[in-house]
Inverse folding.
């Protein structure tokens, strides 16, 4: 009954209640709060200069970070699939560390090496570079993990054939490897972007949360909650949520379209 | 066919290497090797600077004055309380999410109904929402001025600024893992054995416990490992709904922040290292499980 017909009525009811209590009801309350004063109130909240600066900073730095991720994530995936070296298994396992490590620990860890009193003489604390650094850390696995299986399936003999026929390494990369990997890179980038836009834990300690300088969207929302200005917090939350969902949906569609039309 | 064609194309380079003058062949090989080495250096260098060196640094900083200060820091009453509170929340949220995840996976994979794709997206929603926004949404739903605020107050239930709210926040951020890991395994498993069992007279529960669950167990366990790691480390959402009262509603990640902001680096590092060690344990578990599922599907 449960296996064959997709669960009993009781089971479905429990699933529905759990999902409603955890996701539907809170998200509905959030949307309602952001819309209580009508569109003009919503607009006033999100056009507050500090909010605009925070949202802009979030989107720009997230875009830069996912571009870096696309390049280095692909390189790392390539090395993990096509290269052989001692300790490869350990390196492969370590890729997931940013997923397993609590975000606040990620912030502390980065500050220990690249913060005040850095043993290597690099101090990024309280600068915009620190935001990029923390976001690069927490989003590292996405592109690597989405490119790796595709590269694994991709036949290396195609590349060898092209090279033996006289294609330069760059041509092989541009004409053979990258076109097959693009959908996977795009979907990794989409997940990285959604994560970067909402990231909070790894940023609170390292960025200093300076308004107009290093204050990102999620930190702004946090500050507004502490000030008990919930309508402002709700309005900016909705903007962040929509930005993440739109990019996620657009890139998912693009990646599906590419894998249909290019391959 | 394609592999044999590719093989014959690849062959000339192999045989050519033997026939060609020695110096030229080794030159080509050398170029390939140099390129590989270059790319490997870039990849490993990036990982070392971004990942390994900072994590190694925190272990060094923590243990540079020996074990005694670390031991004192982790045995401080507030640290102990934070650690056990974190475990308590995990112990409630993870089983709930596991049951939900298995049920949802069955529903999405075996059920036939309208709006299934939408439901699938809804399950993944917590991954696209900032933890801070999740915390805010919970305050707006269950807080004093929230939708259910009056009703909860009348019944003497406090959700926000207490453990129930922290459990809910933790459960939301780690909600999708079990379902996501179980669905592909369930698809792979197919329905033949389940149908055979029910034809032979097994009840729904019997089929589930004897056929379905054993078939998907490693997928579920993998999901549980991910859920636990995420739940243990949750910071943003819990930070908002907990009120962060030391010794009362402070989890281990919140404790790390509080110690750090109070300029108690030793306390912050010690607690951070405890969480980092748990993260490493997660990685080991993930790797063992991946090998396990691979050997299972190979059989």
């Amino acid at each position: 009954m449960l296996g064959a017909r997709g669960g009993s009525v009781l089971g479905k009811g429990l699933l529905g209640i759990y999902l409603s209590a955890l996701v539907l009801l809170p998200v509905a309350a959030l949307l309602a709060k952001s819309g209580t004063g009508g569109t003009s109130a919503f607009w006033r909240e999100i056009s507050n200069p500090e909010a605009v600066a925070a949202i802009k900073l979030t989107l720009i730095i997230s875009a830069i970070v996912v571009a870096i991720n696309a390049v280095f994530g692909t390189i790392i995936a390539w090395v993990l699939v096509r290269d052989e070296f001692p300790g490869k298994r350990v390196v492969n396992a370590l890729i997931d560390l940013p997923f397993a490590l609590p975000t606040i620990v990620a912030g502390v860890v980065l500050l220990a090496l690249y913060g005040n009193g850095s043993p290597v003489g690099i101090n990024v604390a309280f600068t915009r570079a620190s935001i990029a650094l923390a976001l690069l850390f927490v989003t590292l696995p996405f592109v690597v993990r989405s490119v790796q299986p595709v590269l694994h399936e991709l036949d290396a003999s195609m590349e060898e054939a092209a090279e033996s026929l006289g294609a330069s390494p760059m041509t092989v990369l541009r004409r053979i490897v990258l076109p097959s990997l693009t959908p996977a890179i795009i979907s990794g980038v989409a997940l990285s972007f959604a994560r970067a836009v909402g990231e909070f834990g790894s940023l609170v300690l390292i960025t200093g949360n300076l308004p107009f300088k290093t204050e990102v969207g999620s930190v702004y929302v946090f500050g507004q909650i502490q000030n008990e200005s919930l309508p402002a917090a709700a309005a900016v939350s909705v903007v962040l949520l929509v930005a993440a969902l739109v990019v996620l949906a657009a890139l998912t569609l693009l990646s599906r379209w590419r894998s249909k039309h290019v391959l | 066919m394609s592999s044999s064609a590719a093989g014959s194309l690849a062959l000339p380079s192999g045989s050519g290497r033997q026939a060609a003058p020695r110096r030229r062949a080794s030159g080509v090989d050398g170029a390939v090797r140099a390129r590989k080495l270059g790319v490997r250096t870039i990849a490993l260098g990036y990982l070392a600077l971004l990942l390994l060196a900072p994590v190694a640094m925190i272990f060094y900083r923590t243990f540079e004055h020996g074990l005694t200060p670390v031991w004192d820091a982790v045995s401080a009453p507030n640290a102990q309380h934070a650690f056990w509170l974190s475990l308590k929340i995990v112990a409630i949220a993870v089983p709930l999410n596991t049951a939900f995840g298995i049920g949802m996976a069955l529903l999405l994979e075996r059920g036939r109904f309208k709006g299934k794709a939408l439901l699938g997206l809804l399950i993944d929603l917590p991954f696209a929402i900032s933890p801070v926004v999740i915390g805010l949404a919970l305050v707006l739903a269950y807080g004093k001025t929230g939708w259910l605020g009056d009703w909860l107050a009348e019944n003497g239930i406090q959700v926000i600024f207490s453990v129930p709210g922290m459990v809910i926040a933790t459960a939301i951020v780690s909600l999708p893992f079990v379902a996501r890991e179980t669905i592909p395994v369930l698809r792979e498993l197919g329905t033949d054995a389940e149908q055979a069992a029910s034809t032979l007279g097994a009840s729904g529960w019997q089929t589930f416990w004897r056929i379905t669950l054993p078939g998907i167990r490693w997928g579920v366990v993998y999901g549980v490992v991910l859920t636990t790691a995420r739940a243990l480390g949750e910071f943003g959402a819990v930070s908002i709904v907990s009120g962060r009262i030391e010794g009362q509603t402070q989890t281990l990640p919140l404790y790390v922040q509080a110690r750090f902001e109070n300029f108690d680096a030793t306390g912050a590092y010690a607690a951070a290292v405890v969480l980092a060690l748990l993260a490493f344990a997660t990685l080991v578990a993930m790797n063992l499980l991946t090998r396990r599922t691979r050997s299972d599907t190979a059989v």
User: Anything to note?
Assistant: Confidence is low (pLDDT under 50) at residues 1-24 of chain B. The two ends of chain B are 26 Å apart (CA to CA). The first helix of chain B runs from residue 2 to 19. Residues 19 and 270 of chain B are 62 Å apart (CA to CA).
